[in-house]
Structure formats: structure tokens, C-alpha cells
Amino acid sequence: MSYPVRYYCPHCGAVVELERDGYLSDKSVTPYPLVGWEYADPAESFENDDADGVHFVCGESDAEGLRWTGEVSEADDVEHPGLESPCGNDVYLSFVRFEDGREVDPVPESEYVDIGSGPRSGPRGPNGP
Ligand SMILES: [Zn+2]
Q1: Cα of 9 from ligand 1 centre, angstroms
Q2: Domain count of the chain?
Q3: Separation of 16 CA from ligand 1 center, angstroms?
Q4: What are the boundaries of the region Disordered (predicted)?
Q5: How far away, in angstroms, is 33 Cα from ligand 1 center?
Q6: Mean predicted lDDT score pLDDT of the chain
């Protein structure tokens, strides 16, 4: 038994409806992938797969059970209200993941890169001669 669940694009607020089986919990919808999550295309059978989430392209992804409603959310966390909608940007729907029975917290990409990597080589800014 599946039912439609509504999400909105974090960039422009375009509302998308997705048929879900209901046994996977959603964690978040973000404009970037979470570190450690694996994303499937909505056309794949993500519910039965090992995917940890679904990757959409706003307004362009097309699959059975997926429907762009033409509505635009006015939620406060839409990044660019007034942006042309749908905007064609990447949207990542992440499911809750568990490891060893504990919920995994996503690590923001920027922090993840800096942890334990030591001094990074490469230019850090205009400090040349
Ligand atoms: Zn969008």
C-alpha cells in the first residue's frame, strides 16, 4: 500500500509528490547530498534498493509515482523564493539511516573535509610573493 508524500524543492519551493511505501523514514530534503548517503534516481526502485535517498532534478525528474504538482511552497526555508520554478537544480531527499541500531547524523560536507585531514596543500588565498 503506497501513498503520496509531498516535498518541496529547497531552492525554489516547487512541490513534488512522490508515491512512497511508507516504511522508510525521511530525514531531510536538501540542496546537496549528505556525506555517506547513496542516492538513487526516482525511476529506480529506491524503496527496495540499498539507496539511502533519492536524487531529483527540480521539475525534470520523471518517474512512475512522481508528480510535479505545479504548486510552489512558501515555507521559510526555501532558499530563493521568487526563483523561476521549477528551477532545474539538484534536490536530495534523504532517508533516515541506522548503523548498529543508532540513527546516523549527517555530517556537513565542509566540516567533514576538514576533520583530521591536517594542513591542506594548495592555495588558501592570495599570499604569494
Ligand atoms: Zn526548484
Answers
A1: 5
A2: 1
A3: 10
A4: 106-129
A5: 15
A6: 83
List beta partners, residue 95: 26
Q: Distance from the CA of 53 to the center of ligand 1, in angstroms?
A: 17
Ligand 1 centre distance from Cα of residue 5 (Å): 17
User: Residue 72: inside a domain, yes or no?
Assistant: yes
> Does some domain include residue 63?
yes
More confident residue, 45 or 40: 40
Predicted confidence (pLDDT) per residue in 51-90, tens digit: 899 999 999 999 988 999 999 999 999 999 889 999 999 9
> Measured in angstroms, how far is the CA atom of residue 126 from the centroid of ligand 1?
35
- Arithmetic mean of pLDDT, 25-41: 92
Q: Is the peptide bond before 86 cis (omega within 30 degrees of 0)?
A: yes
Q: How far is the CA of 60 from the centre of ligand 1 (A)?
A: 10
Region 17-32: mean pLDDT is 85
How remote is the CA of residue 83 from the centroid of ligand 1, in Å? 8
DSSP state of 61: -
How many CA within 13 A on the CB side of residue 57? 7
Is position 121 within any domain?
no
Domain membership flag for residue 80: yes
Residue 53 belongs to what domain range? 3-114
